[in-house]
Design a protein that fits this description.
Distance between the termini of chain A: 28 Å
Order of helices and strands of chain B: HHHEEEHEEHEHHHEHEHEEH
Strand order of the largest sheet of chain A: 2-3-1-4
Helix content of chain A: 55-70%
Number of helices of chain B: 11
Number of helices of chain A: 10
Largest interface: A-B, 19 and 30 residues
Shape of chain A: elongated
Strand order of the largest sheet of chain B: 6-7-8-3-9-10
Radius of gyration of chain B: 20 Å
Helix content of chain B: 25-40%
Oligomer: heterodimer
Largest sheet of chain B: 6 strands, mixed
Structural class of chain A: alpha+beta
Number of strands of chain A: 4
Order of helices and strands of chain A: HHEHEHHEHEHHHH
Largest sheet of chain A: 4 strands, antiparallel
Radius of gyration of chain A: 31 Å
Shape of chain B: globular
Distance between the termini of chain B: 60 Å
Number of strands of chain B: 10
Chain lengths: 301, 284
């Protein structure tokens, strides 16, 4: 009966103070909409940044005198090395063909093929590429004692990680990640401030009612429950409307275009149902908590 | 969930006789005053003085007028009794227990034992008369059946049985004040506070309201009326406590708004020749 009373009171309040309730609902709707658009964008951006980071590679050049078995052994050893995600063998012929494509004239002048056989190694963690290079290359002072370097790694002539390129990629993607994180934090903060303010307004409009409730001896929780339920309803409505709009946008715009733009098709973008659940939960929690907490100042004394 | 909460409430009620059982405790102890102020002072944050060393004892079943000029401390006294604020100094006792010892959580239970009536009625404008009165019962968790029985009964008592489904703004001031009295009294609280109950009403209507409050008092409820209404105080001839600048300057059984005052004295006071004249208490 008590729950019934609270729900009844909440709905009567919603109906009666329609304007502030509508304002609160709209605020929730807009916030959820912005978040709903922004979360996938952040995710896609991060995904793309990670993909770009995947392009960080380490080249290990094979000694020109290495035999076929040595090369095969080296491949096995490289695969077994920690922080190695992928190993690709590029024979000197293949390398020459690639370079010729890029700069045909220069290589035309060269009679022979100056390029060595090479392994292109993709590190699992791009930030660890420096360490990988260090672990693969032979220490400089042992250069004289080539034969002393036993094992398959002995076939490595030189290791390079194209330093400049790597550094650029790492710093650029890092910046992108930082920016999106900053924007997301800012947006969440603005949303909370906006919602809190709207709720405060709608409660202020009803402070007289709260005053009467206190006068006739209602306990604080008794006063609070209808407001919290009202908050839940407002959050539910705003969140549902926002999700409806998001779904519409997804079906009408994003899905048809996703084949064309890599960004939209980024594999790491959040699943729609998960996004829905997240937004819904956030809407309801924020508006219910907001109402309950804002009431506190009216419940003093 | 509803069941657990209700049962929790019920058990809480039985566990907390200090607050819930105040009404019961009021009844048998005739010797303990319903309201007692012991050297109470209230200084507001701004430095203005609400009350200064005020002492008063009001026994069960009394009808007391609290009179004095605006800002003399009448409203402060009522607010202290409702624990809307704390005294700066001294003790406020209600039926023998110190109000400042009641934890904030229990304040609602104190207020359920005190009916309050205001000059501006404080009715909820978007509820019917019936709903306004029923509300104060719903808030304290009264059952539906007893609400349906009590509300029409109390509204009949205040003479509004034909207007159950009107809204407050469809009623006259006097009728609205009757509704607010009905709301204050529907729980039959042992103490009724009225802050300028006739302040917005014409003399004829005021008499009706006062009769109603008096009838409530006759039924055993202690009544404290803060008022400016000189005619009413003079006609009723009840106990008068006069305050000035936060001090009790007169406490007189069956007193007048001002102690007997000749036309000449009044003239003097009116011309401001002797501001203190006529204010001296004359114990009866």
């Amino acid at each position: 009966m008590r729950i019934g009373f609270f729900v009844k009171e909440a709905f009567r309040a919603l109906k009666r103070s329609a304007a502030p309730s509508l304002a609160a609902t709209l605020t929730i709707l807009l916030t959820a909409l912005v978040l709903g658009v922004f979360i996938p964008i952040v995710q896609a951006t991060t995904g793309t940044a990670n993909e770009v980071r995947g392009r960080v590679v380490v080249d290990a050049y094979v000694k020109p005198d290495a035999s076929g078995t040595q090369i095969e052994e080296l491949r096995q050893a490289l695969i077994a090395t920690p922080n190695v995600a992928n190993v690709e063998y590029i024979s000197k012929e293949k390398a020459l063909a690639r370079e010729k494509e890029r700069n045909a004239d220069a290589y035309q002048l060269l009679g022979s093929n100056p390029l060595p056989d090479a392994f292109r190694i993709t590190p699992a963690d791009p930030d660890g590429s420096e360490a990988l290079v260090a672990s693969l290359s032979s220490p400089a002072d042992e250069k004289s004692a080539d034969t002393a370097r036993a094992g398959p790694l002995g076939a490595i002539d030189e290791v390079r990680n194209r330093e400049e390129e790597t550094e650029k990629i790492l710093s650029a993607t890092g910046l992108v990640k930082l920016l999106t994180a900053g924007l997301a934090a800012l947006l969440v903060f603005a949303s909370i401030a906006l919602i809190a303010n709207t709720i405060r307004l709608s409660i202020f409009a009803r402070r007289r009612e709260v005053e009467v409730m206190r006068l006739v001896g209602a306990t604080n929780w008794f006063i609070r429950w209808p407001f919290v339920i009202e908050g839940v309803v407002v959050g539910l409505m705003g969140g549902a409307a926002a999700i409806g709009l998001l779904y519409l946008a997804k079906v009408v715009f994003v899905d048809p275009l996703s084949h064309r733009f890599a960004l939209l098709a980024a594999p790491e973008t959040i699943h729609f149902p998960l996004l829905v659940a997240l937004l819904m939960g956030a809407c309801i929690a924020v508006s219910a908590l907001g109402s309950g907490l804002t009431l506190r100042r009216f419940l003093r004394v | 969930m509803a069941a657990t909460r209700t049962s929790r409430r019920a058990s809480a009620r039985t566990r907390e006789p200090a607050s819930e059982g105040m009404a019961k405790r009021l009844a048998p102890r005739r010797d303990v005053p319903v309201v007692e102020l012991r050297g109470v002072s209230k200084v507001y944050d701004g430095g203005s003085v609400g009350l200064e060393q005020a002492w008063m004892r009001i026994a069960r079943g009394e009808f007391v007028f609290l009179v004095g000029p605006t800002g003399c401390g009448k409203s402060t006294t009522l607010k202290l009794l409702l624990k809307e604020m704390e005294p700066s100094e001294g003790e406020v006792l209600i039926s023998g227990s110190d109000v400042s010892r009641i934890p904030r959580r229990k304040v609602p239970y104190l207020r359920r034992n005190i009916g309050v009536v205001f000059q501006d009625y404080k009715l909820l404008p978007n509820r019917t008369i019936y709903a306004n009165v029923a509300y104060s019962l719903e808030v304290i968790g009264e059952g539906r059946a007893s609400i349906r029985r009590k509300v029409p009964e109390i509204l009949r008592l205040v003479g509004l049985s034909t207007k159950l489904h009107s809204y407050p703004d469809e009623l006259s001031g006097g009728e609205q004040q009757r509704v607010s009295i009905a709301r204050a009294f529907v729980n039959h609280p042992p103490l009724l506070l009225a802050d300028e109950p006739t302040g917005n009403l014409d003399p004829e209507t005021s008499i009706g309201i006062m009769q109603l409050i008096y009838r409530i008092n006759r039924a055993g409820t202690t009544v404290i009326v803060a008022t400016h209404d000189r005619d009413m105080v003079d006609k009723m001839r009840r106990r008068v406590i006069e305050l000035q600048d936060g001090r009790v300057i007169r406490d007189q059984l069956s007193g007048l708004y001002r102690p007997d005052e000749s036309t000449r004295e009044f003239g003097i006071r009116l011309r401001g020749e002797s501001p203190g004249a006529g204010l001296e208490g004359r114990p009866s």
